[in-house]
Design goal:
With 353 residues, the chain is α+β, with helices and mostly antiparallel strands. The protein has one domain: B-lactam Antibiotic, Isopenicillin N Synthase, Chain (Jelly Rolls). It has nine helices and twelve strands. Strand 9 and strand 10 form a beta hairpin. Helix 5 crosses helix 7. The two termini are 20 Å apart.
């Protein structure tokens, strides 16, 4: 499903420059976008300028009259009728939107708020501490950088990120960032439990045994990505997050009160306003993308070596409904996604039969 983070208008590009050199110079600072803001830039570097058509597409066709479904999980463990109603709501939301907001999901608001504050503490801490964690090695316990697709994406996003692979083999607490290690560990455990429940509900929505998606390890991996979008001096020229589809089974997104998240629905961009205590669920491709902070929890094993193949669920196939995609490992899928960068397209067509 397609998502973007934005508040932009068209810009004009100046292509007559050495983009590769400017990308490397920016990367070599190990300071990210936050470093540019701290240095007091009033004109953003050209690597952050997005093509006018991209900005036009993102800012036009907005629909403020509709909103994504909100699903209330209260009572789901005790009321059989309520559970059936929730499953029906999830089925409808997944088919028509690919997104829904979750409330009364069981994660205390105090944990959600502390997680957002922890992300802010990390990105706003002393630059020398952050520079020690700056890397493009996806197998490190903590991966901090600006734009995972810096060298492959068509334009650079105004965003810094750190991520941690929290399951199935979580890092030791001492290997997590000191600024937020405790809350990151606690938040990940809570999100992991919620993910198991959601995969049960999605299995039921597909007409399968409730254990099906968990038994094929859709919830085995959990990667927590913690994004930071500093205030931009020229927001009309850039994007916080390019239009994309997520390369996982399921994403649970925690956004702060600033907002800015939009999803593409029936060729129109729809705002997802922040709801206190809510999480945004996004059906990922593998199951079928003021300073602002967001925390995206990807149910995906990423680059971890694995030979298990994923493809269309055989129990749902028939002569009238044959498979549309070939089988692939999660690692190969993620590798292709990273190689192509966030170019506004899904990685799924590459695997279509």
């Amino acid at each position: 499903m397609v998502v973007t983070g934005r508040d932009e208008v068209p810009a004009t590009l100046t292509p007559d420059y050495d983009r590769a050199s400017e990308l490397k110079a920016f990367d070599d600072t190990k300071l990210g976008v936050k470093g540019l803001v701290d240095a007091g830039v009033i004109e953003i570097p050209r690597i952050f300028h997005h093509p006018p058509d991209t900005l036009d597409n993102s800012s036009s066709g907005r629909d403020t009259q509709i909103s994504i479904p909100v699903i209330d999980l209260k009572g789901i463990e005790k009321d059989v009728i309520k559970r059936k109603e929730i499953v029906e709501s999830i089925r409808d939301a997944s088919e028509t939107w690919g997104f829904f907001q979750l409330v009364n999901h069981g994660i205390p608001v105090s944990i959600l708020e502390e997680m957002k504050e922890g992300v802010r503490r990390f990105h706003e801490q002393d630059t020398q501490v952050k520079k020690e964690l700056y890397t493009r090695d996806p197998m490190r316990p903590v991966v901090y950088n600006s734009n995972f697709d810096l060298y492959s994406g068509p334009a650079t996003n105004w965003r810094d990120t750190f991520l941690c692979q929290m399951a199935p083999d979580p890092p030791k607490l001492e290997d997590l960032p000191a600024a937020c290690g405790d809350i990151l560990e606690q938040y990940s455990k809570e999100v992991g439990k919620l993910g198991i429940l959601l995969f049960e509900l999605l299995s039921e929505a597909l007409g399968l045994n409730p254990k099906h998606l968990n038994e094929i390890d859709c919830g085995e991996g959990l990667v927590v990505l913690c994004h930071y979008y500093p205030a931009c001096p020229q927001p009309e020229l850039t994007l916080g997050t390019t239009k994309h589809a997520d390369n996982d089974f399921l994403t649970l997104l925690l956004q702060d009160q600033i907002g800015g998240l939009q999803v593409l629905h029936q060729d129109k961009w729809v705002e997802i306003p922040p709801v206190p205590g809510a999480l945004v669920a996004n059906i990922g491709d593998l199951l079928q993308a003021r300073p602002r902070v967001s925390v995206a929890s990807f149910f995906c094993t990423g680059f971890r070596p694995a030979s298990k193949l994923y493809g269309p669920i055989k129990e749902l196939l028939s002569a009238d409904d044959p498979p549309k995609y070939r089988e692939t490992t999660v690692r190969d899928y993620v590798a292709f996604f990273v190689e192509k960068g966030m170019d506004g397209t899904s990685a799924l067509p590459h695997f279509r039969l």
